[in-house]
Structures are given as C-alpha cells and as structure tokens.
Automatic annotation (TrEMBL):
Location in the cell: Membrane
Source organism: Aspergillus oryzae (strain 3.042)
Lineage: Eukaryota, Fungi, Dikarya, Ascomycota, Pezizomycotina
UniProt-recorded name of the protein: Multidrug resistance-associated protein
Entry membrane topology: Multi-pass membrane protein
Keywords, alphabetical: ATP-binding, Membrane, Nucleotide-binding, Repeat, Transmembrane, Transmembrane helix, Transport
Residue ranges, annotated region (Disordered): 31-60
Amino acid sequence: MELELPIREQLSAAIFSKSLRIKEVVNVNSPDCAESKTSSGECSDDEDEDDGEVGPPKTKQSMTNLLGVDAVTIATFVKFSHTLLDAIIQFILAIAFLTNLLGWVPVLWACTVPAILSPVNYLLAQQYSKAEDALMAASDRRMAVLSEMLQGIRQIKFDAQEDQWNRKVQTLRSNEIKKQGQVFQFDLSLIAVWSCGPICMSLIALATYFLANKSLSPSVAFTALSIFQSLSATLSNFPETISDLMNAKVAARRIEQYLDLPEYNNCHSDGEAIAFSQTTISWPSNTMEEDNSDFKMRNISLQFPLGELTVISGPAGAGKSLLLLATIGEADLLEGQIFFPQRQSPLAYNGPSNEWTIDTSIAFVPQNPWIENGTVRENILFGLPLNPERYRDVLHACCLEDDLNSMQDGDQTDLGANGVNLSGGQKWRVALARALYSPAGVLVLDDIFSAVDARVGHHLFEKALTGSLAEGRTRIVATHHTTLCWSEMKYYVVLENGRVSFAGKPENYCPDLCPSNAGSIQRIGNADSAAQQGHILVPVSNSLTAPQQNPSEEDVKGKAFYEAETRATGAVKLSIYSIYMQACGGYLYWIPIALSFGFTLVAELAIPYWVSVWTRDLANTQPDIEVNIHSVSDGLSARSDPQSADNRLWLYLGVYIGLFLMSILTEIVRYQLVFMASIRGSLAIFEKFLLRVLHAPLSFLDTTPVGQILNRFSADFSTLDSDLALDLPNMLHGVLMLLSVIIAALFISPLMVGFGFISLFLSWYIASLYVTAARDAKRIESNARSPIFEQFGSIIDGLVTIRAFDKVGQYMYRMYNAMDAHCQALWHLRLFNCWMMFRLNMIGALYVTMTAALIATIRGVDASVAGFALSFALQMSEVVAWVLSEYAEIELDFNAVERIVEYTQIETEHQDGMDAPAGWPTKGEIEANDLVVGYAPELPPVLRGLSFLIKSNEHVGIVGRTGSGKSSLTLALLRFLEARSGSLHIDGIDISRLRLSALRSKIAIIPQDPVIFSGTLRSVLDPSDQYTDSELLAALAKVHLRPSMDDEENSELEGTDEDCNNAALSLSSPISERGKNLSQGQRQLVCLAQALLSRPKILIMDEATSSIDMSTDALIQQTIRQEFRDSTLMVIAHRLSTVVDFDRIMVLGEGRIAEFDTPAALLRNEGGPFWTLVDKSGERDSLRRSILQGERQA
C-alpha cells in the first residue's frame, strides 16, 4: 500500500499533466486511420494482424483509459510485486532443504525441470504480453467509439441509428472479448506450466534418490513431498504475478508512448505587435513534416493593429479558424514567424474594471464554444474574482439579462457539460461574456454572430465588440457578417483557398462601403431604444432582477443540472448475484463448475492422504488408533514384501503423480469453465447495458454526465471482464481448501473441529466487519472516480480555451484535488484490508497453536496421520485469510456489477408500436390537434393546445423568441416528448401508434450544431453504402463542398494542385472525432449533403446554414428550395431572411401559435407578432422587399 497508492496517483497526475501540454490534434493522419475506420464500421472483424502495432493513445477516450485502466494495472502489480521476490527466496530455500535431505544429485536432476520449463514459460509470457497488448488496443477502440457515440447520442436518436450503433459497438465488443479469451487461455497455460513443475521435480527427485540409495524412508519421503507441495503452493501465485507483470509492462509502454507524444509549443516569437511574416501554418499534428497535413495556409504576411478591430472573412473551409489558432499560438508553424507581444504577469483584480486589461493576455471564443459543467456565473468568471459592476456590464453587453431572468436560478443556474441545456446562441454569448469579463487585451473571436438573429447581432456588435468593455483591446474576429462590422473595422483580411487574397484597410477593399456609407447600417441598430433588447420579442431591462442586481460571492448556487450519482447501501443484494449467474448461462451451467470443484476437493484430500499411506507402508507400521480410512493402507501393508519394494515405489509414485495430475486437470477445467461463464456473462450484460443507454430518454442522457456513463463502460466493465473472472474461482478454491482443512481435522479429533469452527466464526466476524466498511468505502471510491473522468473529459474538450486564457495551473489544481479525494477513499479501503488481515492472522496463529497442542496430547497418533492432519492445520491461518479476503474482493467486484445492473434497469423509451406503411410518408402532411406537451409530468406544459395543418410539400418557417416552443415542437414531432393530450398526425397516421424507429427514420433533421462522426467522408455521407461515388460527389457539389464538374475532371484535379487540395474534399478525406478537422460551416454542409442524398419527405432544419458565408448561403438556400420542392420543409429560423420567401410562417409564443399564415399576410397585420419581428429585425427594408417580391411571383 505504501507503494501502490503513490504510484497510482502520481501516474494519474503525470497523465493529466501531459494532457494539458499535448497538442490539440484535429487532423486525421494515416496512423490514426485504424481508429477512424473502426469508428465508422469499415474495418473487418478480424483485426489480429494490426492489433499489436497500434500507436500511442491519441483519442480522448484512449487517454481516459490510461487513467482508468493502465495506471491501475501498474499500481496493482506493484502491490503484489513482492510475491516475485518471495517466490524466488522460497524456491532457493526449498532447494537448499531438499539438497540437505536428498543430496545434490537428485536435486540437480529435479532442477532440469525448471530449466526446461523456463523457455516455455518465457514464450508463453511473451504471447500473453502480446495478447494483453491486443486486448488493450481493442478496449481503446471500443471506448473511443463509445465516447463518440455518447457525445453524439442526440443525433443518433434523431436519425434512429440506435441499431446501427449497437451493431458497431457490439462488433468491437466481440473482438475485445475474443482478445480477453486469448488472454485467459495464456493465463491458464501459465498456471498449468507452473503447477506441473513441482510435480515433475518431486517425481524425478524421489525416483533418483531411490535408484541411488535403494531405499526411501517415510521421514525422507514425507518431508520431501511436503517441501515440494509447499513449493507448489508458493509457485501457484507465480503465474498470476507474471501475468500482472506482463500487464504492467504493456500499460507502462502505452503510458510511455503517450508521454512521448509531441507537446504543445507556442509558435509565437516576441514582438511589438501581432504579425505574421512569410508564414506557412497547418493544423496541429503529431509530426512536424512538411506534408503532415492536407490543408495549409501559405505565405501569410499580416499585421493586426493593436487596440483595434480586425475582421477575417472567407468562404467555409478557407482557413479562418486555422488563422485564429495560429494567432493564439496553437497551430503548427512550418515556415516563417508569428510575432506576439510577450505576456505579462496578471494584475490585481480589486481595482476599477477599466484597469483590468492586460495588453498581452488572450481570450478566445472558439467556433464551438466550450461550456463546462458549472453555473452561468462560474463559466463567465472563469476563476476570476467577482467585480459586480463589471459583471453587470458584461451581462448587458452580451444580451444575457433576459436569459437569466427566464432561468429559475438566474446566473446560479447549473449548466450541463458543453452547455447542453443552453441554445446555440446562449452558448456563444456565455463564451463571449467570459472573454469580455477577462482582463485579456487580445480578444480572438470565431464566428460569434452566426447563432443569433440580426437584432441581437447588432447589440453584440455595439455593446460587446465595440462598446466600452472592448475599448483599447485588440479584437480579431472571424465572421461572415462583414457588413455589420464594416463601420468600425480597421483591418480587413479576406481568405480564399488557404491564402490571403486581401489584407489591409477595408476602404481599400471596397470603397463603396466606406464608414460614411456604412452609417446607414449603424443607424439600423440605433433606430429605437429596443436596440438594447436581448431577444427580438421581449425588450431587455437595463438592470438585472433582484438576485442579480448586486451579485455577490455568497449567492446560493442553484439546483444542480446533473443528478448526483447514486450510491447503494448495505450488502450487495442477492438479486445482483442472481442476475450475474443468469447472464453467465443460467443456474444449470454452474452444475459442471460445481462438479469440477468437487473433484478438486477430492484431489486436495487424496494427495496428502496417499502420502501418509505410502510412508506408513514403507516403514511397515500400523496405526494404533482405529480410523476407517486406514483400511486401504492396512491391506497394502499386509502384502509388504521386500522383493516388491521397487514395484510398490513406482505404484505409490504413479498414484501420487496421477492424483496430482488429476488435481491440475480439474483446476484447469474449473478455470476454463469459469472463464467461459465470465465471458458469456460479460457479453450478455454489456449488450443489455448498451441497449438501455441507446434507448434511454433524452431526459436521462442530458442530465447524466458522459464521464459517469463512461466510468461504468470502462472501469466497471474492466472489473467484470477480468477481475471477477479470476477472483471468483480463487474464492471458490479457497472454500474447498477450507473444507479440506476441516475434513483433515476430523481424522484426529472432533475437538479439533470444534476449535476450527470457533476460529472460523471469529474470522468470519472480523471479515464481516471489514466487508461492511469496505463495501461502502468501495462505493465511495467508485463515486469519487467519476468526477475525475468527467473533469478530464471536459478539460480535454476545452483544452485550447484553457491554454488561451492561461488557466492551466487553475485546472491542474482542480484535477489534483479530485485525485486527492479519490486517493483518500482508496487509502481507507486499503487500511480496512490491513486491519482485517492482521486480525485474521492472529486468529489463525492461535488456531494452529491449539491444533499442535491437541495432537501432542493425544496418545498413539500415527506419525504419518499426525503429519497429514497437521500439514492442513498449519494452512488454517493462510486459508481462512485467503478465503475471507477473496470473499471481500468478490463483494467489491460485485459492486461494479451492481453499478452496471443499475443502468440496465433505467427507464427506456417505448419501443413498441406498429410499423409504418410501405413508402410512408407519401405526402408529408403534418396535422396537430390541440397538442399539449411537457418535459416531465410535474412540470408545466411547453406546448399548449397547438392545432395546425402543414400541407404536402409546403415550406414553413418557425420563428419565435427563446422558450417559445420551437425546439419542443421538433421534439414532439420525433416523439422525444410524448403528447399529454391531443395528437400529431403525419399523412393521417397518429404518430403515437408508430414504432419510434419507424417514425424517426422517415424524418430528417439538421441541427444548428451538427454532429459528424469519425471515418471517411464517404462513410459519413453514406454509412449504409447505398449510393455510388458519382451520387456522393454530386451531393457535395450541390452544397459547394466540391467544384461542380464531372467525375473525370475531379479525378484529374485531385492531388495536382495545392490550392485545389486545400479547397476540395474528396470521398476518402478522413474525418476526425466529431468532425473537428472540419469547420462549423463545412459540418453543416456535410449534413445538408446527407439530406440531399436521402431526400426525406419531411425535413426539419434548425438554422442549419448559420455558419456559412453570405454568398454561399444564398446559393445553398436556392439549392434547398429547388432540391426539396417535393418535400415538406420546416425551418426553425433565427434569421428571418432565410424563411421570408417560404409558403407560410408559424410564429410561436409561450407554447402557443401566435400567427400562422403567408409572410405577406402576416406583414399586412400591422402591429402583429411577425410585423414586430420584421420591424425590429435590423433588416426591415430588405425583408419587406423580399416578401413583396415573393408575393408578386406567387
């Protein structure tokens, strides 16, 4: 324990510390393709050839496995490593005793056995190590896919792909279990080899001794066999220790490979300004070769003016995000230099808010804002002290006041990981508020306007980007909304194909949009006092509600978003054991296991008894006490004949060897049967666990941290797969040994059995006290482990943001505290074990003393029988301690089973219902009748009596403020929210009667923040392999991810020109986890291409082109209208310009339909909700022109 815990925690700390220094690699190079192919299901089931050749862990989940599995493996070996030295010392002592007893010649011949077996053992150990390496690689792949699945579970459920993902994960799980089976077989081989060694040594030694001396006295035979039997017991632990050593070697190599990965190295050089000089940059990669990335930005020469606004624009995939990463020092610098003023030490934060700014510090808002699990205030303050005045100014500048007023706990509302309970616009504004509140003098902002409507965008521009909070700060913004920023920008950068096509003053780029002409744009934002509103329907007050007017550090934190992880109490229920036994094959399967244990018990008793018969016969003695079991030896002794001594020797040796071989055989069979049961049980429980998680309702998945689920998938299933399979037969074997001790005691005296039961009762009492405490300590330890996984995963997701804000030290301190809390729980668990073992050893020693005294006081006890009984009694201390400690381990192992079974019993969505008719829906007509929907029975409804009819092929825009019910209507259509009353019909069929998969597979949805799974672009677009390459390329061309040309021209251009390689994606282009090597706009376009291929009859889009540049967006909108003219289209719109030419527009407010008519009809209703939206949108004139033009064309 003195070594185990420090090594475990220090390894965990080193792994975590490395994770904060590692590069944020987003591109997928060839070494990683194995993982991406596996994730996408393109790999074959048989991966034996390359399992052992995996590289260092690179994915988020493989890094998590280093914490949850590899560090534990090394610490476990350290805990038991002393047994190696013990075994060696005991082996040397045994050889010394045997040499003294038998002479050096028999012992020398006996030592030929380990000399022969050592190479065999070495080869088996090597194969075991390879099998363990392959197992860990398979486990990494499974966990990587599971992590990706849980991160994108909403998209999986939207697309009704639960069955596909279940098959994908089960395939990887089957491969992992296959590797686990191979590990078990090699482990079994090691056990067999080491068990055979002492038998062969005893046979050769005694036979050689007899041939040399022509005699074998009982004292010599019994003593020698006792030593060999002791040696067998000593070496029986050797294979397991060797296995632990091989496991630790594999784990150490994986950790070493991880620690050797290239680290983040800030690519900045000291300078007076932020400037690029003849720079070539690429996405971060683990190799710094010139060709390490398909996409590079070349020959960049820029100088951003300090204290001013710089705007970077360009089409999707042009390199805007990469340029921003280089600005904060996160990109790979291949050529040239990037200059940045040297960072200074932080200032004090107790002065006026306008004195906070540190000119050279950085604040970064990425394209996918990182929101950690914490309150709104904690996310904004980001570890800084609260300055109430500055805090209020930031909330107002970022339009967060109304949002906080609508939240029950205000700014103390707890946010889920990645802001799962926030809208896309809210996440961006919270991230922007964090940057504004910080003291950073350089604000690097990526696409902050894409998720908000025009009015909020103007407010953010005027109050946040160019207001008093931004005064004197260098602001570098990548956006498509260049017109909005034109009046204030001082430097303009236009990117195209990874190159800078323009860099300079904006008036030099477009004189027609000089600041004087852009004044009209600015005047739109100042048209009325409503410019300060945070949402387009309800104006924002200039002050916070009472709880937020005077924010203080003592404000009570709101209700936690995530439910606390439950912890069972008391003993593990018998039902848990029953569930496990049923999963292993049912109760009948355990009958042959019980029989194998019975045979083992017979062998354990027969071997020492046969030795007593043998030695008594050789001494030609008869016992003075009458014991029925001696009848066999009496018969043999009666036929004692000196001339047949040789024959009797070989008879006794033969029977002895046969009994020992039977013991080994039954032991192997026993292990094999338990291993097979364990594998069957692991597969069955995993399958049920996975299906429950996949079919769990969104309410469970949204309120349960991913790290908590992964903890069960990783650490708990690791216990179920391997630890339980070894601990269970060990405990049962210990029970047999204990029974054999009790039976041996019966040969001497019932009084001895009485002492034995008293000793057993006392030991059981001590063990029960231990188990009671250790069980809860184990549960506390398991629960203390979950926050480590959760924080680790969250920090990996926000790594770039954390480093940009220079918060690495803060998060190291937080993580180390979590590790310390876990270590404390583990420390007490180990102390409880030490407490128990000390007392069990004392009780055992007392029992052995009593037994020896009893044997000495009974007259006429035959020496061989006394030795037979005493040899078992001497094991009492060890056997009882072993049995009870193994029982305790089983209890703790079943704690993992208990935690897994808990998730196999969670409530799931109803999977029953009827199949949809063939070809349904044929028209795409949607009808709601008095629909009432709520998120939970105890909560008020979010949709209140909706009734509408959307006609076939109609294009409908859905608008309304945050909380009006837009997203809830989408969830109701897909039955993520079941109707409390009323109904929803599609083509006349009540959707509540359909199976969920039948419904969701027929409705396509493109969310604002799309989820792209890893693989190749081909596998992402066509996971079921239904379309030809030409169809896939045509879909990419329609969404402008490839140039529009025929396939032959595409193939000729591929790979011939660097610019073309930068611009165009090929079907074989690798896609990293969650599509991180694509920009937000590219991910949206890929999702749109998927919809173009599937041509759904009903398509729902949630501002699905918000991150695309204006010119491409116009083309995409035209494509949508043309390609989906035969589909019913529902678009949730934040920007009215995307839906003003639709057939009809539905305006929602407080869960009800405020208006539903054509845009022209709604516009004529002066003062109505839609008229108000248009009037206060900031695009009033252009929207009215578009609506009137559409009416004339109609």
